[in-house]
Amino acid sequence: LINTDGYIGNSQARSRGGSVGASYIGDAGLVGAAANSLEKVYGIAPDGHGEAPVTVKLIQTKYDIKGQLNKPFAFAEEIRVKFGYTDYQHTELDGGVPGTTFLNESFESRLELEHQPIGNMQGIVGFQSVNSAFEGLGEEGQIVPKSDIDSFALFAVESFDFTPIKVDLGARVEGNTITPENRDSVSYIPISSSASALWDITDQHQVSLAFTHSQRAPQLQELFTNGFHHATRSFERGNANLEKEQSNNLDLGYRFNSDWMTAEINLFHNWVDNYIFQQRSCDECFPVLDSQQANATFKGFEAQTIFPLMQNKYGALDLTLFGDYTRGEFSNGADVPRMPPLRYGLQLSYEHGGFSTNGRLTRGEAKKNPG
Fold this sequence. Notes:
By secondary structure, this protein is mostly beta strands. Helix content is 1%, strand content 72%.
């Protein structure tokens, strides 16, 4: 094996992008359009066997149109509509030679109606659709079949103000269909809902509690991938019989806000039925990744504290301390693979006028439950 010492080989990355947009805002509403472009080149870390380095070149172009009408009729406070088009492609270069190109062209539309307050209740109802076409070209392009992916959703979010407590309720129903070339299509109907409460104990102290039930349909790659993929240096196999993931998540949060410090911590516990993951095994020459499902539990925390160190005519300087941890276990006691280890660190941020910069240091502890 050929391994680097003290650094990760072929982990360089370079990106550039830009955006341009214009909008008209009036008393009746607004209309606007924007275009943005992103180009990125990054390396894939080697597995130590001395193969030629694999590099990915990514190009994405996106166009968005957005409109809004204020008080269009008696019941409506606002109507918002958005249309988007994204042209995405990435090419995998093996030793600098283009090999496989993956293309994804998608159209997205979203309609939201914000109704006028009804007593202490206000909220929105809406519709969203995403229609995309995926295709792989080149030597490894056929490991995922050319497919049309269609998603439609109805959703609603309502807020109730019971000062000093605010309650939010939400629901979403989706219809997802994946139609691969020369195969039968698969369809799913994920249903999700949520309930949360935010209690303003004082101006400085807030406590939140949220419960979410969510369902996720399997993705194209999880269902139909079948072949060797040089970018991951593994043989990947999907599973066309995958069912929806179903999770129940409980989240408890606390926030403290004062002139000298802002702090927040969130604790979570997530129970997932039919969690989709890639189980790694080994062939004689390369790893094999199989898409599988099992019941799992996730628990952990996220925390952040911000100290304002300076705020005057020379600018603002803040110190941020942060950390997060997630523990994942299957119902049989085995470890869920690919979970991040305990991470923590600090960040210094500086702002002055329209200029901002920061330096960030993150430490990841040794992973004791690799799965």
